Amino acid sequence: MLKRALSCTLYVLVAACLVAAKPNLGGFRPQQICQAALASLQGSALKNIDFYRSRQQQMEFRLSQSGQTHSYVCQLDGERVLWRRAQDSRWQLNPELRFHFNASAKQLFIGHYLGQAKLAEYSYRVGDF
């Protein structure tokens, strides 16, 4: 009876660990993926996008460019990057930003999509951050 109870407890612990496991992001941190997505979206250098703070799953960034500062909120949802301006309440859907990576080359790709049509793709390496 004790052996069966321990076995059930072990299964519950393993299942909890699997649910709590973080997704494989190819060696990139969520902040880096959002930073790259926002930089590609704004046509800006990575160094101009600063991570400001995180609130649960949402990350806040500031873009400093041409003497102006703009704030953005970003969140990862599967292979999509959700984004919006900080002052807006709705996520922007056009263009849709998706990411994937080549783990062996340590390369991150950010794609801009309109429906299924790929509008552009940008690539970043771990050393770019």
TrEMBL record:
Residues 1-21 form the signal peptide. PROSITE patterns: PROKAR_LIPOPROTEIN. It comes from the Bacteria. Keywords: Signal. This is Uncharacterized protein.
